[in-house]
Task: inverse folding
């Protein structure tokens, strides 16, 4: 039987989709959003109930434009409880009134036509935002409300465009873009002409609540230490690792476990074959555990549960199994179909059984891919490396990619200059289910972008240029100047926008931070992310913030020296963080008028390391040149490499030649030794700063 979407029924009834969702829930029809579907006979009964037969029932396939014979009328709906009859009468009255008002408005204003927007080919979030003159964050938020995780380069489907058209009260027509059509034809022909189908390794995503031992489990599996990449208990970006089990390869995607990284976790689930859900035996199922389950089920990915920390005295695996059964993950021994394995990452117990279960599920799935066509896949992570340029970590999902291949990532063109596998080795070719770092892209792509290898270099450039041109149509609006500290004082009776620019060390962190901030709810304040990117805060970022009256949030990065000076001149508020919780707490506090600056950071100076000396019994001495300000003996010191903070600590000794000194000014050389830190390199920037207590506002 045909399905009917909520927004189709709402349009047929002449009422708002949100109102219809409320009505349907009162009538015990299980719907979640505009895109939810119901059986055609249910839609007909709802239509009859709300209109008492005044309007012909909807036929879903005819509504979609297909010439299909209508289904026969069904039996009348059963009588509802007395309490619901009153609701139905009220709804019928509201529905009639709405339709009558709409009809009168149409009769009075026949000349008022709904605006029609003509779009071409592949339509992205950024392009649509530019064409209808709304901030990109508005569209991203609306998609997020529908459960759709997206980004500025994401291609919008026909259903998504139809929903957005309804939201913004416009008609959207999409005509074929000859170039995009040709691209699709090239890809399809290549797949048909070169078909060597073979089994491929499974891609496994490890999910779980923070502190439940997800990273420790991965660490135990691959016998390498990845915990050094964590700060504040959060894995900062997704990593991909290939391990060999019984001479068979398995790819693990390491996705962060904290709720703030929901978007990254959802993205990981979309490209994975198997999800390993880690639950602590002493802690049990937590809200973020349920969130991970929902994302995985929505993606249709099989789940294997690893009950970790069974070595702890208060571990209770049976209690955890009952909690899992309560959320419809019923263990096999209880008659269900969920594989559950007891493990201890610390003592390396149960790992063999877990890996055996992963291989078993992969074998049952019969995973296969094409080993001869041009590659396509997904960008897992992307960053700007000062020495190597834009670097993208991609997962090849089909086909083969080789050094020298022209490549398109979203709207970015490149030619693969080099590929590095997860072991750090340079390789010439990569096959399906292989994670690799790619060098040679013109810019940093968005995490989650789809990439294609195209043989025709000129055509690949043309496609990327055209896509980039569409994205540049997005516009920004100027609003009144704002800073985070006095933001609450600017909130009046009307809604006010808080514009934010995000810069982070990697694209995944920027994306996750954006999603976290957009979740903050307030009746009077609307948060708008007008830009996010990777790398140090530049003068360009400051000028953008000045023009659009935004604050800049830097996550695990620093502003360039000229950018900091320009920010002082333009009075742009720059906030720097290393832990995501603090960002969210500060923005919430600013919105509710609770932000009181108690401490203030003052940058004293910056020095560049020109030469490294290894001295016995002392450690690493950084031969440095003071670029700006001064370096003082008692200052705090941070080490910045390629715009990213890699260490914060104290100065152990400061020397001019062989003499200990209290400070060194601009233009002079000095030797610096840091407390408990020797991993210094030439070209690193040493930034001296002090934190002073100030009076609360």
Result:
């Amino acid at each position: 039987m045909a399905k009917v979407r909520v927004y189709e029924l709402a349009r047929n009834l002449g009422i708002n989709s949100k109102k219809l969702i409320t009505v349907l829930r009162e009538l015990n029809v299980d719907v979640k959003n505009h895109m939810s579907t119901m059986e055609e006979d249910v839609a007909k009964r709802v239509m009859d109930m709300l209109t008492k037969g005044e309007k012909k029932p909807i036929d879903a396939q005819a509504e979609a434009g297909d010439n299909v014979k209508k289904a026969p009328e069904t039996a009348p709906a059963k009588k509802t409880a007395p309490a619901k009859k009153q609701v139905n009468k009220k709804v019928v009255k509201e529905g009639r009134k709405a339709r009558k008002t709409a009809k009168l408005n149409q009769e009075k204003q026949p000349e008022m036509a709904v605006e029609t927007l003509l779009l071409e080919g592949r339509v992205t979030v950024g392009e649509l935002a530019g064409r209808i003159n709304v901030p990109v964050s508005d569209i991203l938020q609306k998609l997020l409300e529908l459960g759709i995780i997206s980004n500025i380069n994401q291609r919008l489907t026909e259903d998504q465009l139809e929903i957005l058209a309804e939201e913004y009260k416009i008609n959207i027509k999409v005509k074929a873009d000859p170039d995009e059509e040709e691209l699709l034809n090239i890809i399809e022909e290549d797949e048909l002409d070169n078909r060597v189908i073979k089994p491929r390794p499974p891609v496994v995503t490890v999910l779980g609540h923070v502190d439940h031992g997800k990273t420790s489990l991965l660490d135990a599996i691959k016998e390498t230490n990845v915990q050094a990449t964590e700060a504040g208990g959060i894995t900062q970006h997704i990593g991909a690792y290939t391990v060999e089990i019984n001479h068979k390869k398995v790819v693990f995607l390491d996705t962060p476990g904290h709720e703030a990284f929901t978007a990254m976790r959802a993205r990981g689930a979309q490209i994975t074959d198997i999800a390993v859900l880690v639950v602590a035996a002493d802690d049990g199922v937590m809200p973020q555990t349920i969130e991970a389950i929902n994302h995985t089920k929505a993606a249709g990915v099989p789940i294997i549960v690893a009950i970790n920390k069974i070595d702890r005295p208060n571990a209770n695996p049976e209690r955890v199994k009952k909690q899992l059964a309560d959320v419809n993950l019923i263990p096999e021994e209880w008659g269900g179909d969920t594989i559950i394995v007891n493990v201890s990452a610390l003592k390396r117990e149960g790992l063999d059984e877990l890996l055996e279960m992963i291989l078993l599920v992969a074998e049952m799935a019969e995973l296969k891919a094409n080993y001869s066509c041009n590659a396509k896949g997904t960008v897992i992570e992307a960053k700007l490396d000062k020495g190597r340029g834009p670097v993208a970590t991609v997962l090849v999902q089909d086909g083969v990619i080789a050094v020298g291949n022209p490549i398109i990532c979203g709207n970015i063109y490149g030619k693969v200059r080099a590929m590095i596998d997860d072991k750090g080795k340079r390789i010439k070719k990569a096959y399906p289910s292989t994670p690799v770092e790619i060098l040679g892209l013109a810019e940093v792509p968005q995490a989650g972008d789809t990439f294609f290898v195209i043989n025709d270099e000129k055509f690949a450039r043309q496609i990327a240029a055209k896509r980039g041109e569409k994205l540049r149509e997005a516009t920004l609006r100027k609003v009144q100047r704002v800073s985070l500290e006095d933001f609450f004082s600017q909130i009046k009776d009307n809604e006010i926008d808080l514009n934010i620019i995000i810069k982070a060390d990697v694209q995944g962190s920027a994306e996750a931070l954006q999603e976290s901030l957009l979740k903050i709810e307030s009746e009077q304040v609307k948060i708008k992310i007008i830009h996010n990117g990777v790398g140090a805060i530049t003068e360009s970022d400051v000028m953008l913030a000045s023009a659009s009256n935004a604050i800049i949030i830097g996550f695990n990065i620093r502003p360039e020296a000229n950018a900091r000076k320009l920010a002082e001149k333009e009075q742009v508020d720059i906030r720097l963080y290393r832990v995501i919780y603090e960002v969210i707490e500060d923005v919430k506090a600013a919105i509710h008028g609770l932000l009181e600056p108690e401490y203030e950071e003052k940058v004293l100076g910056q020095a560049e390391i020109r030469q490294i000396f290894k001295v016995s019994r002392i450690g690493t001495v950084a031969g440095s040149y003071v670029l700006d300000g001064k370096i003082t003996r008692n200052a705090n010191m941070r080490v910045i490499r390629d715009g990213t903070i890699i260490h914060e600590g104290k100065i152990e000794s400061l020397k001019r030649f062989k003499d200990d000194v209290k400070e060194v000014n601009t233009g002079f050389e000095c030797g610096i030794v840091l407390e408990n830190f020797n991993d210094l390199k030439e070209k690193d920037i040493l930034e001296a700063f002090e934190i002073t207590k100030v009076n609360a506002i």
Observations:
- The radius of gyration is 29 Å.
- The mean pLDDT is 77.
- The CA atoms of residues 274 and 302 lie 5 Å apart.
